[in-house]
Structures are given as structure tokens and as C-alpha cells.
Amino acid sequence: MDNDKHEEIKDAPWQKEGNRIGEITFKRNKVHMYKKMAIKGLAFVLIASLSGGICSYVLVERRLSKVYNPPDNSLYGLGTISQDYPRNNMTRVAQLVGPSIVGITSCPEGFGASSLSPNGSGIIFDSRGYIVTNYHTLANSEKITVKLSNSRVFAAKFVGADPKADIAVIKIDASNLPIAHFGDSSKVQVGQVAMAIGNPMGDEVFGTLTAGVISAVNKRLQVAQTTYRLVETDCTINDGNSGGALCNEYGEVIGIGNHEFSTMMNKDVKGIGYALAINDVNKIIKDIMGLSGDKNIVPESSLNKSPKVSMDIRAEDYLDASKGLQGTVIKDINLEGSASKAGLKQGDIIVEMEKSKVTSINQLDSLLASYNVGQQVTVKYMRGDKLYEAKVTLSNKR
Prior knowledge:
This protein is of the alpha+beta class. It has helices spanning 18-67, 89-97, 259-265, 278-290, 301-304, 338-341, 361-368; strands at 101-107, 120-126, 130-134, 143-147, 153-162, 167-172, 181-182, 193-198, 208-223, 226-233, 245-247, 252-257, 273-277, 309-310, 313-320, 325-333, 349-353, 356-357, 376-383, 386-393, 395-396.
């Protein structure tokens, strides 16, 4: 049995190979993977930043090179704007409408056109030389001259007018002229962009554009028995701008500027101008061109002839917007003259002659120009708050 006893075998020492070593190796590989991911992420960020910077530099340089190229000798980078400079609406309107705007000089008898600067503006609406403007800039003129945007000067012929609406049409002997395009004033809305183009100070600022917005539409101006439909704007409209264009942002004419309307509506208010709505103007133009027989239309003879008759008075324009009263006030009267014999006195305000409203001394002279010495005309005038009527026999103009 002793032989059957087995000798006790002691445990042999383990070698650190298998699982232990594998476990250590796995931990080192995980750390190494994190490092690689961090390096790749950092490299991506650096490459993206570098690429973005290069692209931005190239794009900005190309963009600026089209907009602004300062000369090498410019200390402050002052240069000329490239032709590729992006145009805004106002630039386009100036280029579209500007060539059709003219300066109008009305010359009283005894003056030469060369001695005067344009005292009004006009708009070419027909390439054959037809121009629309304000009547008050022409009334009682012996000569009318027109200066185009390219500085060419023409003598103009009076075609006709509606003095009540203060609209007139004249014509120059020219063809293939640039024309303005009329819009639809019934679609004009408050807040829309507006631009006025005209000649506010004659040759000094010829073809000036001022910008603003439409501040009111379908504004009504009641003067005596005449109602005007106006477009209100904060664009600058002064005496030289009268007859010029009020345009929308598309370069369409939506009104004819009128400084006198601005004076009537707001004597002491700055920054508000008025234009006669183009839809009404368009109708008046058609009446004038077609000689429709409208009693408001004044023919050529009443403008180009100075009045050879007189009522023996000296009068001035009169306006009282608060009462809606406009006419000519007698400042001086010949006590032996025709008006005095008919009962008129100094201070009376003439508002009508032969059923035609009188709103200015120019208009009164234009109406008188169609009569002869010895003819009798019916005159209505205000004295205080009362309206009177008298029959005046016209005398020779002294």
C-alpha cells in the first residue's frame, strides 16, 4: 500500500503571460485611441479654420475689387466707384427719368432767354417734343425756352393749358427724345418710396433728385369752386421743381410737382410737398392735345399774346388758405379808370372773370389777352365776406 501512495506535488509558479498580459495591453490601446481621436479633431478644426479664412479673404477681395478700387496715390483710400458698383432704386430712377426732365424759362417781353435761368421744370411725355408743365410758370410769357438734360436749348411753342388745374403743354421742334412713363396714381399707397426730379434753382442744380416717401394720397385742395386731387410727399418741391416729376421706385411718374399747391396747403410747414395726381394730369393732357372743347382749356392765343387791354388796376396774387380764397387783390386803382367806374375799390379781391376762376395775376392777364378794347366783361370779386359782381368795360393798356 505504501507503494500506492502518491507523492504530494507542490504547485508550480505561474508565468505572467496569458490573461494578465492581455489585460494590460487592452488598457494601453484604449488610451492610445483617445489620443488619436483628439489629434484628428484638432487637425480638423485647424484645417477648417484655415480653409475658411482663405475662402473669406478671396471672396472679400473679389467683392471689394468690384466696388471700390482706391488709387495707389490715395493716402486715405479715396477713389472712384467702379462701374460695377451695385445700383439702388434711386440710381435707376435717376437714369430712367432724368433724361426726360427739362428746364423751362418763360421770358417776359423785353428779356432774352439767354439772360434768364430756368424758372420751372417740365416732363417730356412724347418723343416728338411734347412737354407737360405747370401753367403758372408760362402765363403771360412772350417767349418760352426749354433746356434738355444734355444742355441743348430749344424755343418752345405753347400748345394749350388748363389754368384751373395749373397744367400746360408746350412743344419743341425735336424728335426721338427720351420720354417719361406715367404710372397709375390710384395705386399709390402711403409709405411708398417717392422721388422728385426737377430744377430747384435753375442751372445751378439742374436735374436734382430728392427722395422721401408718400405721406398722404387723394389729398383734396379746395380753392374757390375748384377741387384738386393731390399726392402728398416729404420730397422737396419748391418753385423751380414746379412742373417736374414725382416718381415711384419703378421710375413711373405718379404726379406733377407744384410748389404753389404746397404754399396753399401749408404756408408755414416745412418738409411737405404736393403733386397733382398723374391720372388727372393724363386726362388734361388728352384734352389739350385733342382740343376736346373743354371750357377750361386755354388755346395758344391766350398765352403768347400779352394783354393789350386793361381794367386800370394794379393787382397782386392773393391767397387765404384758411378760407379757401384765392384770386388777385387790387393794390392800386385809377379812380378815373374802367374798374373804378364799375364800382371796384382798392382791396377788392377778383376771383372770377367771365365764368373763369381767377387764381393769380398771370391768369387774369391771360384771360384779358383774349379781349379787345371796348369789350365788356363780367367780374366777380370779394369785399369783406360778401361776393359782388360788376361789368367792366376794358380800356387801352397804358
